[in-house]
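Re: weekly structure request thread

Next one in the queue (124 aa):
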Amino acid sequence: MKTKFIIIISAFFIITWPVLLQSQTITTTAGTPSECPGDIVVPLTVTNCNGIGAISLVFQYDTGILTYMNYENVHSDLSSGFLIVNQTGNKVIISWASTTAADIGSGTLMDIRFSGVTGSSSIT
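Done, posted below.
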């Protein structure tokens, strides 16, 4: 009986292991603001963002045109865990981790607020 159980469990993992290792493609998009000067809100959206335990993103921008102000409207699934949003030089670094997986699906992670002067800057 014990041998049959081990064979069944082994067969289960051989059959399902490739499925367990599959990853999903998550698309992250920063909105394209077109209004300067003044306050600019850039929504950070995702698609297919399910079962996520950690996020790490870096935004780069032209500090001669944009000044990072803050972040707001954080998705409720990111309220548990540990969220850090830090600005250094021409980058905004966003890190989040939790032992409870987030199931955001398709939606907005948060909004990033800048103050801008007349000009043009890409956000990458």
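Residues 3-22 have pLDDT under 50 and may be disordered. The longest strand covers residues 91-116.
Next request, please.
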